[in-house]
Amino acid sequence: MGTLKPQEARRIDALLGRMSLAEKLGQLTMMAATHTVTGPVITGHSTDDIRSGRIGNLLNLIGAGAAREMQRVAVEESRLGVPLLIALDVIHGHRTLFPPPLAEVALFDPEAWRLTAREAAREAAADGIAMTFAPMLDVSRDPRWGRIVEGPGESAWVGRRLAEAKVRGFQGNDLAAADSIAAVAKHFCGYGAVTAGREYASVDFSERALREVYLPPFAAAVNAGVAAVMPAFTDLAGIPMTAHAGLLRRLLRLELGFDGVLVSDYNAVAELIRHGVAADLIEAAALALRAGVDIDMVSGAYLHGLPAALERGLVSLAEIDESVRRVLILKTRLGLFEDPYRRGAALESAATLAERRRLAREIGARSIVLLTNPVEALPLSGSLRRLALLGPLADAPGEMRGPWWSAAQPDTQVSVLAGLRAAWPQARILHAPGVEIAGEDGSGIAAAVELCEAAEAVVLCLGEAATMSGEAASRAHPELPGRQRELAEAVLQRARARNIPVVAALFSGRPLIVPWLASQASALLAAWFPGCEAGHALADILTGRASPSARTPISWPRAVGQIPLYFGQRGSGRPADPANSYSSRYIDESNEPLFAFGHGLSYTRFSITNLRVRPESAAASATVEIDVDVQNEGSRRGEETLFLFVRRLQGRVAPPLLELHGIGKIALEPGARGTLRLHLPVAELRSLGPDLEPVLEPGELEILVGPSADRASLLAGRLTLVV
Ligand code: NOJ
After folding, report:
1. Which residue from 374, 399, 370 is spatially nearest to 481, judged by alpha carbons?
2. pLDDT at residue 41 above 50?
């Protein structure tokens, strides 16, 4: 957590010496101020509890005025004047919303990831917030799980890069700065692997999976200096993470060296009772504290249970003091003792806010993945006179916010309708929703289809409501909800008869299972939730003002039965072979995804040739240079993203089919040719041997570079490791 100045350390010692047990427990307690996205307020609190020191931390307090007033009570009216830590879920923006993390990952641009976190931090800090419960680093290969939208997607390597970028963005160069906020890496660990994608369900995987897949993003966050970590709600092989001393104390703290604050998830300490590992709040509190959880979020277990736990000898005063010390250190590092009002002190200028919205529009457009465009229906012609804009997401500004909206109001979001009107002022936009997002009412379908008669093109906005992904939003049928398919099929049929294109834009927090739409639409876009400038961002893509450059950060299944589906799976002793029924395949579906990880088209075409690997034989300390020639063969400027995969051909542990080791981008004018260089430090090729110790095994491996994880799209070279 960085070193404290001597006077800061002395202040913490002095405070600890003066605190009563109740005041100590107050520092270990976080209570909710209001109801926000995260669920009902479980334990009410009063300002008196802040004054008496029984509450030392708050979440869900929105507005600089309110934050300042609560801070004033803590600092000026409580006995010891310890400042409050005020936290909020600032996940993809605060007042200005950016696309949610999974959509942002589609940019494959760590600098952009950092930048949006920086802007979110500045905006939240201006509202008096000192800590965000982000980044969410749960690798997940299960689109049924609604929270897949909040994280890095299927790749641990991406999770590591995302962790570094977001921690740097939120925390800035100096955690004490008035525009920096503490980051919380969550949810430690493996939440993305809940059974059958069902929210809050049990998790069970091997220690190898833990160390290869679920842990690395957290290790990266710790290395980047993350201030806090939140254990997951879930259990791992029967031990709830909130009470998992092995993972929290031994692995996270001792092995990874994390010395920051552990903050429980919402009510998770009390939920140890429902998990069946604690009889009452006293035992629950003792289990969590002993596992190393410093702050109890809203359950009141520490406040009400720890005094008795202490009396019974279930915890020691030294353990309580250790946690209080960590909380006080964090408050010190945030500069709260120096000036508790530094955040929330200055209003942001109109120019800053306008620039932030400009950024939101740019990031929004850059997050939209062009999944198909077989007849080049996109971009739409600038001279369109009549455009039918159909579907329940076409005029749904509030839905554009996505799963976490912090302090953003629905009426500050730009709908697709508003965006298209601004983009085609000369055109008539004929709009009808046709159906509701999830309702059973199909009475509007005929009227919507009729609008195709007069139109030159159709834009069909389909998908999920914002609350259908995120927390508590698992779906057993991750498809188009309600009667949207019926609407889409009727529209497609009419459009075919009239020979006009239908461009389908999917709004969702997960890949949706829509092979029928992918094969019938003239073009298909994964728009995710593009954030507050959604309509403008989508219009930028539709008009061709921006060329799509995003890539899907997650494999799109063809069928629910393929889940979990991901590029990093291991092979088989009987690999899929269409001619052999005793091979690893389905008898009723392809093994392949509908769209592979990394897939995404643009308005131009790139060819890649001439892969060079230098040196071709390398030792552990070397960095290998990998070059590939890229040519823009189309007639527009565009940006190509290439992925560097490795396939270890042999090892004592069966290697994954593909391992991601890098991303590179190159922007080229029409007809231009360039060389993209990727760097691969050989040390990064260490894998976990049979005993889970890192090893670098000698031998040959394949170096694969290309635009997606689809094997057919990759150029292959060889590298020999001499170790
Ligand atoms: C529950 C969620 O699991 C967590 O991600 C969030 O930070 C907390 N609620 C606080 O809102």
Report:
1. 399
2. no
* pLDDT for position 40: 38
pLDDT, mean over the chain: 96
Angle between helices 534-543 and 416-423 (to 10 degrees): 50
The three-point CA angle 527-154-714 to 5° equals: 85
**Does residue 89 have its Cβ closer than 6 Å to ligand 1?**
yes
Residue 265, ligand 1, Cβ within 6 A: yes
Instruction: For residue 191, report the distance from its CA to the centre of ligand 1, in Å.
Output: 12
> Is the N-terminal amide bond of 35 cis, ω within 30° of 0?
no
Taking the C-alpha atoms of residue 37 and residue 645, their distance in angstroms, rounded to an integer, is 38
Q: Is residue 226 scored above 80 in pLDDT? A: yes
Q: Which of 221, 220, 215, 230 is nearest to 294 (CA)?
A: 230
Top mutation candidate among 261, 471, 474 for ligand 1, by most atoms within 8 Å of CB: 471
C-alpha of residue 722 to centroid of ligand 1, in Å: 47
C-alpha 405 – ligand 1 centre gap (Å): 13
Compute the distance between CA of residue 48 and CA of residue 714 in angstroms, rounded to an integer: 63
- Of 15, 43, 13, 41, the C-alpha closest to 303 is 43
User: Residue 40, class by beta-carbon neighbours within 10 Å (0-12 exposed, 13-18 middle, 19+ buried)?
Assistant: exposed
Residue type, 492: L
Catalytic residue among 265, 294, 296, 540: 265
Query: Is residue 37 very low, low, confident or very high in pLDDT (cuts 50, 70, 90)?
Result: very low
Please check whether residue 602 is in contact with residue 547, taking contact to mean a CB–CB distance below 8 angstroms: yes
The size of the chain, in residues, is 723
Q: How far apart are CA 502 and CA 434, in angstroms?
A: 15
- For residue range 566-586, list pLDDT tens digits in order: 999 999 999 999 999 999 999
Which band of pLDDT confidence, cut at 50, 70 and 90, is reported for residue 397? very high
Check whether 43 has a pLDDT greater than 50.
no
Q: What is the pLDDT of residues 474-496, one digit of tens each?
A: 999 999 999 999 999 999 999 99
Sign of CA dihedral 347, 351, 357, 362: negative
Cα-trace Rg, the chain: 26
Atom of ligand 1 nearest to the CA of 184: 7
Q: In what order do the strands lie in the sheet with 606-614?
A: 606-614, 623-632, 673-681
Q: Is 419 exposed, middle or buried (0-12, 13-18, 19+ CB in 10 A)?
A: buried
Known active-site residue 265: yes
- 444, 434 contact by CB (below 8 A): yes
pTM (2 decimals)? Answer: 0.97
38 lines ligand 1 (CB under 6 A): yes
Ligand 1 lined by 271 (C-beta under 6 Å): no
Closest residue by CA, ligand 1 atom 8: 266
Distance CA 620, CA 382 (A): 55
- For residue 265, report the distance from its CA to the centre of ligand 1, in Å: 6
